[in-house]
Design goal:
Radius of gyration: 17 Å
Distance between the termini: 38 Å
Strand order of the largest sheet: 1-4-2-3
Helix content: 25-40%
């Protein structure tokens, strides 16, 4: 199964880092509501924060390159706010959100030259951090 190589046991830190990873949430064009099915990722984050009182989260919204810079910056902020509202309505206090920002079309995850690439750029990313 492992081609004769020994199975690498993960350290406690590596296991915790894996547990803290939440996949990005994706959005439709010009929308600040997430695509159907993406809420499960936010629910995973809510459960992670409920189970670990020493975790906080940084939330960053992004947009594709369609539209003006100002429009995309505002849209990315609205996407981050949409996720924050879902998290807080799930029972997580606002002070557990370390930062919330929108970066517009900065830092694309993929090319903006294809519909598939643009879809990957319409996202909110999470960085879960341990505070204690």
């Amino acid at each position: 199964e492992n081609k004769g190589c020994p199975v690498k046991e993960l350290t406690a830190e590596e296991l915790e880092a894996q547990k803290m990873k939440i996949d990005p949430v994706y959005f439709d064009t010009n929308k600040a509501t997430f695509i159907s099915g993406e809420k499960a990722k936010v629910d995973k984050l809510i459960n992670l924060l409920k189970e670990n009182s020493n975790y906080k989260v940084n939330i960053t919204g992004y947009a594709d390159s369609q539209g003006t810079d100002a429009y995309n910056l505002n849209l990315s902020k609205n996407r981050a706010s949409s996720v924050v509202r879902t998290i807080t309505s799930g029972g997580i206090k606002k002070n557990r959100i370390e930062s919330q920002k929108g970066l517009g079309e900065a830092s694309p995850a993929a090319t903006n030259d294809t519909p598939e690439g643009r879809a990957l750029n319409r996202r909110v990313e999470f960085e879960v951090i341990k505070t204690k």
